[in-house]
Amino acid sequence: MRVIGAVLDESGRASAVTADSRGGVLARRRGRAEAADRRGGLELLAGIVAELAGEDGVEAACVALPGGASDDEALALDGRLRPLALRMVDAREAVWAGATGLLPGIVLESGLWVDAYGGRWNGRREGTRGWGRFLGGDGGLYDLGLSALRRVAAALEGAEGPTMLVEKVLSVLPEPTTERLEAELEAGLAAPARAARLASIVIDTALEGDSVARELLDRAAERQARVARAILLRTGLGYARPLVVPRGPMAEGAGLFAHFLRRAVRELLPGALLSPGRFEPAVGAALLLLGLEEEDPQRMLRTPAWSAAEAS
Hints:
Blueprint: E1 2-8, E2 13-19, E3 25-32, H1 38-53, E4 58-65, H2 71-81, E5 85-90, H3 91-100, E6 105-110, E7 114-121, E8 125-128, H4 141-156, H5 164-171, H6 178-190, H7 192-196, H8 199-207, H9 211-234, E9 243-247, H10 249-253, H11 255-268, E10 273-274, H12 281-290, E11 306-307
Parallel strand pairs: 1-4, 4-5, 6-9, 9-10
Antiparallel strand pairs: 1-2, 2-3, 6-7, 7-8, 10-11
Helix pairs in contact: 1-2, 3-12, 4-5, 4-6, 4-9, 5-8, 8-9, 9-11
């Protein structure tokens, strides 16, 4: 038996794999839609799946779309790809399946907000998704950027001394005054992307050794770990040995943040296994059809991963 796993992301990038009955990847296709809209992405993805479906022995496909497929989208894809048996899922399902290899655990995705989702596999995934942004200060880019602005405000008011972080944030403001900062804070609260862009300054300055920036990054890691704990408890995995798979720009682009996150997870979730993830989302979509999972979570340590209880 051969199956296809296919995923479309928010930016219009499509990826698909053909996998055998043991989950081995036999073929892989990727592309990006010229028209950066959902319709263009769906056209591209359907073409890629149709190409892979022409191979011998392919019986079914799992197609993962952001937010899942609408009824019209499901009918259109089914009509185009018939007689291939189709399963339609939310893209997060494929991300989770690939990241964990269907083992109990969650994905901790940091963007503007931290979005945590996951659960356990029991023929189909059981759990929850997408609750991170509703849990207060979550340690995402928006939260980190606003924290930087608050520290700048304290410095301008004389409550704190000047630091490298304060100087760098002020250097990107057209007018380094309390009035201008007030306007930036109001804009940041109204438009999260404006505050989130300052997060990169915090990360870079922390890597240069600034104590305030390191403190903010450490606090962001702790907040993300608390989001992870809340979701694990909600899914009933808080007392197991679940996987926690960080994703997103903070997890991928800042080694110092990864260090802080390992420490925070060790303290708040001592039984968790913090992992960079096993497979890409397209492979995860194929696994959702095949229902293959590792029986021994410790095997993740060789894929690689690390135990939060052992991290320094």
